Amino acid sequence: MYDDRTTDAERARWEERWGALSDRELPPSRWLVAHAEWLPEAGRALDWAGGDGRNALWLAERGFEVTLADISPTALATARARATERGVTLDTVAVDLTSEEPPAGPWDLILCHHYYDPRIAERAVPLLSFGGRLVIHHPTRRNLEKHPRPPAHFLYAEGELATLLASYEVVFHEEAWTVADRHEVSAVIENTP
């Protein structure tokens, strides 16, 4: 069962994690780069729980007006510093997306990469502009066959995301082992009038 409350211990864990990773900059998601054709060409983009901004920075470099929303002030500070180093603009918002409202739209793109929320479509699609796209990419429980993390309660069951998205305009859906040897589900939803 999905729990939409973040405990103080979980907040502290995220701060510790992002503090430990602040010296290590990861490239944007290989999946996202390989599937860039599913993104709008430009516009306002929201990186939903985007951590230290690895994907948000890539989007900003592509010309998007990007807002990065995350629970961790440390991750957001790291993202802002990296944006300054790269000469791109990046807005950041400290928000607990499990229980607080996301930044207001309309957004041309909402990216939800490696963040589990079975309510993501019902929460994000109303924030999209007409023709805007929600991009979801996340491991499934089958991923546990090869990798111990994330734990099962933060993973989609096989076929679960497709069921959750049944009432939306899904323009892309895939559930498979990726080049990173992870079993992940991906979907692109378009907000159609």
Q: Secondary-structure map with pairings?
A:
Blueprint: H1 8-21, H2 30-34, E1 44-48, H3 54-61, E2 65-70, H4 73-86, E3 90-94, E4 107-113, H5 120-124, E5 128-139, H6 160-164, E6 170-177, E7 183-190
Parallel strand pairs: 1-2, 1-4, 2-3, 4-5
Antiparallel strand pairs: 5-7, 6-7
Helix pairs in contact: 3-4
State the gist of this model.
The protein is of the alpha/beta class and 193 residues long.
Give an overview in words:
A 7-stranded mixed sheet has the order 3-2-1-4-5-7-6. The chain has 193 residues and is of the alpha/beta class. It has a single domain (28-190), classed as 3-Layer(aba) Sandwich (Rossmann fold). It is built from 6 helices and 7 strands; from the N terminus they run ααβαβαββαβαββ. The mean pLDDT is 90. The radius of gyration is 16 Å and the shape is globular.
Please identify the structural class as seen in this structure. Answer: alpha/beta
> Which whole number gives the mean pLDDT?
90
Biggest sheet details: 7 strands, mixed
Shape: globular
Quote the CATH topology: Rossmann fold
Low-confidence stretches: none
Instruction: For the largest sheet, list the strands in their spatial order.
Output: 3-2-1-4-5-7-6
Can you identify the CATH superfamily? Vaccinia Virus protein VP39
What is the CATH architecture annotation? 3-Layer(aba) Sandwich
CATH class: Alpha Beta
